[in-house]
Write a structure and sequence with these properties.
The chain is of the alpha+beta class. It is built from 2 helices and 10 strands. The strands form 3 sheets. The chain has a 4-stranded antiparallel β-sheet with strand order 5-6-7-8, with no helix packed on it.
Protein backbone atom coordinates (compact mmCIF):
# COMPACT_ATOMS: atom_id res chain seq x y z
CA UNK A 1 0.00 0.00 0.00
CA UNK A 2 1.44 3.36 -1.00
CA UNK A 3 0.67 6.48 0.88
CA UNK A 4 0.00 9.63 -1.02
CA UNK A 5 0.71 13.04 0.44
CA UNK A 6 -2.33 15.06 1.27
CA UNK A 7 -3.04 18.22 -0.68
CA UNK A 8 -1.35 20.51 1.88
CA UNK A 9 1.94 18.53 1.77
CA UNK A 10 1.83 18.33 -2.01
CA UNK A 11 1.40 22.12 -2.34
CA UNK A 12 4.16 22.78 0.22
CA UNK A 13 6.52 20.48 -1.66
CA UNK A 14 5.65 22.07 -5.01
CA UNK A 15 6.13 25.56 -3.62
CA UNK A 16 9.48 24.65 -2.05
CA UNK A 17 10.79 23.04 -5.24
CA UNK A 18 9.43 25.85 -7.40
CA UNK A 19 10.98 28.61 -5.29
CA UNK A 20 14.37 26.98 -4.78
CA UNK A 21 15.99 28.29 -8.00
CA UNK A 22 14.68 31.80 -7.30
CA UNK A 23 15.88 31.69 -3.70
CA UNK A 24 19.28 30.34 -4.73
CA UNK A 25 19.63 32.99 -7.41
CA UNK A 26 18.80 35.69 -4.88
CA UNK A 27 21.48 34.35 -2.53
CA UNK A 28 24.13 34.20 -5.25
CA UNK A 29 26.72 36.96 -5.24
CA UNK A 30 27.13 39.45 -8.00
CA UNK A 31 30.75 40.45 -8.43
CA UNK A 32 29.86 43.90 -9.68
CA UNK A 33 29.47 46.90 -7.42
CA UNK A 34 25.90 48.16 -7.53
CA UNK A 35 25.48 51.44 -9.39
CA UNK A 36 23.78 53.01 -6.39
CA UNK A 37 26.81 52.35 -4.16
CA UNK A 38 28.55 55.37 -2.58
CA UNK A 39 31.05 57.03 -4.92
CA UNK A 40 34.02 56.16 -2.71
CA UNK A 41 33.32 52.44 -3.24
CA UNK A 42 32.86 52.83 -6.98
CA UNK A 43 36.24 54.55 -7.53
CA UNK A 44 38.78 52.71 -5.46
CA UNK A 45 37.24 49.74 -3.73
CA UNK A 46 38.42 50.90 -0.32
CA UNK A 47 36.92 53.05 2.36
CA UNK A 48 37.71 56.76 2.36
CA UNK A 49 38.75 56.58 6.02
CA UNK A 50 41.64 54.16 5.34
CA UNK A 51 44.71 55.39 7.21
CA UNK A 52 47.62 56.86 5.28
CA UNK A 53 50.30 54.16 5.24
CA UNK A 54 52.97 56.76 5.95
CA UNK A 55 56.67 56.32 5.26
CA UNK A 56 57.98 52.84 4.61
CA UNK A 57 61.42 53.56 6.04
CA UNK A 58 64.06 56.23 6.39
CA UNK A 59 66.96 56.62 3.99
CA UNK A 60 69.53 55.90 6.69
CA UNK A 61 68.02 52.40 7.16
CA UNK A 62 69.03 51.41 3.61
CA UNK A 63 72.76 50.68 3.29
CA UNK A 64 74.66 51.92 0.22
CA UNK A 65 75.27 48.92 -2.05
CA UNK A 66 72.58 46.94 -0.23
CA UNK A 67 68.97 47.09 0.79
CA UNK A 68 66.24 46.06 3.18
CA UNK A 69 63.29 43.69 2.74
CA UNK A 70 59.83 44.66 3.98
CA UNK A 71 57.94 41.33 4.03
CA UNK A 72 54.61 42.79 5.18
CA UNK A 73 54.52 45.12 2.16
CA UNK A 74 56.25 42.52 -0.04
CA UNK A 75 58.84 44.99 -1.29
CA UNK A 76 62.60 45.40 -1.09
CA UNK A 77 64.23 48.85 -1.09
CA UNK A 78 67.82 49.16 -2.31
CA UNK A 79 70.44 51.91 -2.53
CA UNK A 80 72.77 50.93 -5.38
CA UNK A 81 74.76 54.18 -5.07
CA UNK A 82 74.75 56.94 -2.47
CA UNK A 83 71.39 58.75 -2.57
CA UNK A 84 69.83 56.56 -5.31
CA UNK A 85 66.93 54.47 -4.00
CA UNK A 86 65.11 51.70 -5.85
CA UNK A 87 62.17 49.55 -4.84
CA UNK A 88 61.14 46.18 -6.23
CA UNK A 89 58.57 43.55 -5.43
CA UNK A 90 60.00 41.08 -2.91
CA UNK A 91 58.20 38.18 -4.60
CA UNK A 92 60.69 35.98 -6.45
CA UNK A 93 59.74 35.50 -10.10
CA UNK A 94 60.76 31.85 -10.01
CA UNK A 95 58.13 30.35 -7.71
CA UNK A 96 56.74 33.23 -5.67
CA UNK A 97 58.80 32.98 -2.47
CA UNK A 98 59.57 36.21 -0.64
CA UNK A 99 63.23 37.10 -1.14
CA UNK A 100 65.31 36.49 1.96
CA UNK A 101 68.34 38.79 1.96
CA UNK A 102 70.19 41.62 0.28
CA UNK A 103 73.93 41.00 0.22
CA UNK A 104 76.97 41.34 -2.03
CA UNK A 105 75.08 43.67 -4.38
CA UNK A 106 72.25 41.22 -4.95
CA UNK A 107 68.76 40.44 -3.76
CA UNK A 108 68.75 36.76 -2.81
CA UNK A 109 65.97 34.19 -2.69
CA UNK A 110 66.92 31.21 -0.54
CA UNK A 111 64.06 29.03 -1.82
CA UNK A 112 65.98 27.95 -4.93
CA UNK A 113 69.04 30.19 -5.10
CA UNK A 114 67.84 32.93 -7.44
CA UNK A 115 69.46 36.36 -7.24
CA UNK A 116 68.49 39.76 -8.61
CA UNK A 117 70.32 43.04 -9.22
CA UNK A 118 69.88 45.80 -6.64
CA UNK A 119 70.17 48.30 -9.50
CA UNK A 120 67.34 47.21 -11.80
CA UNK A 121 65.85 43.98 -10.37
CA UNK A 122 67.23 41.90 -13.25
CA UNK A 123 67.60 38.17 -12.64
CA UNK A 124 71.35 37.53 -12.30
CA UNK A 125 71.31 33.97 -10.97
CA UNK A 126 68.93 31.19 -12.06
CA UNK A 127 66.56 29.51 -11.74
CA UNK A 128 64.67 32.85 -11.96
CA UNK A 129 64.88 34.33 -15.44
CA UNK A 130 62.44 37.25 -15.11
CA UNK A 131 63.30 40.48 -13.26
CA UNK A 132 61.59 41.70 -10.09
CA UNK A 133 58.95 44.30 -10.89
CA UNK A 134 59.92 47.85 -9.95
CA UNK A 135 57.68 49.57 -7.42
CA UNK A 136 57.29 53.36 -7.49
CA UNK A 137 58.51 55.16 -4.38
CA UNK A 138 58.88 58.75 -3.27
CA UNK A 139 61.80 60.09 -1.28
CA UNK A 140 61.03 63.25 0.69
CA UNK A 141 63.78 64.39 3.00
CA UNK A 142 64.99 61.18 4.58
CA UNK A 143 61.61 59.39 4.34
CA UNK A 144 60.92 56.71 1.72
CA UNK A 145 57.28 55.88 0.91
CA UNK A 146 55.56 53.69 -1.63
CA UNK A 147 54.05 56.03 -4.22
Amino acid sequence: MTSRPDRRHALTLAATVGLSPAVLAACGGDDETPTDAPDELLDTGHTPDAPDPGPLTSADEIPVGGGKIFPDQQVVVTQPTEGEFKCFTAVCTHQGCIVSSVQAGGIRCECHGSAFSIEDGAAVNPPATEPLDEVDITVEGDQISIA
